[in-house]
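Progress report, Aim 2. The chain analyzed during this reporting quarter is listed below.
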Amino acid sequence: MPHSDEVSPVVHGFPHLDTVRSAITALYRRLSPDGVRRYDVSIPASDVLMDATDGLHLGAQRVARALVRHLGLPEARMVVSFRAMEHAASVELGAGPEYFVELNERFARPAHQRDIGAALAHEITHVLLHRLGLERPTVAGNEILTDVVTTYLGAGWLLLDAFRQDGMSSQKLGYLTPEEFGYVLAKRAALFGEDPSPWFTSAVAYEAWVRGRDEAARDWRRPPLAGAGWAARRRARTHGADGVFPCPVCGQRLRVAGTRRVKARCGVCGTVLDCAP
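Predicted structure tokens for the chain:
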């Protein structure tokens, strides 16, 4: 997993939005709507906070085991080590039953230990995707997929909260921009009725969540969805786009035809959508 710090500027906005949406679609296709809904509760902060009484290595292993349980992976011995490396972390994708995760040695420093859970969440999701056989043809595509799945299944709020910025330095984990993490988190929040606002310890992470939430809300106002409003639907028809739109839940492309109000059911996530002419 990559990371950026004071020597690397943080990219903002939504440059990967199409890839993010396709990753959510792929997750629903692989797990099914019922499989996704098994992750209806996000991992709590109490499960992934480092405890000084544990010590560095035992604490990291405890956090890793909590993430393994949350993601529904088989219980196994977790081996977490720290070393000098370019990236934030890496994982050995073997057959198991042990999991070997390496973290950048900076996470061993007291100031960065609070982000161990975020780094482990991404790497352990790599293990989940490996076992599911869900992958993309490029390294970048796989990393974006991993960020999306980590967030959508209830552990990626840690990655967004690891984004911090002040006048002297900044830190961000993962391939998604902070706003894209907020977008995926908002998709999850809408599905399960969660409010992640109280979980953020980083002010800039909270701001990114709000911007991502606003972008996700716009997905429900795309023509021909009834929430788009009459004027927006008319503009879409004028440009020949009316009737084809991405599902606001899973991103699957849907088509409706006709000039009357209809209910459209997404064949991937099962969401029933109110569409209007």
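The CA atoms of residues 21 and 251 lie 5 Å apart. The radius of gyration is 20 Å. These observations will guide the mutagenesis work planned for the next reporting period.
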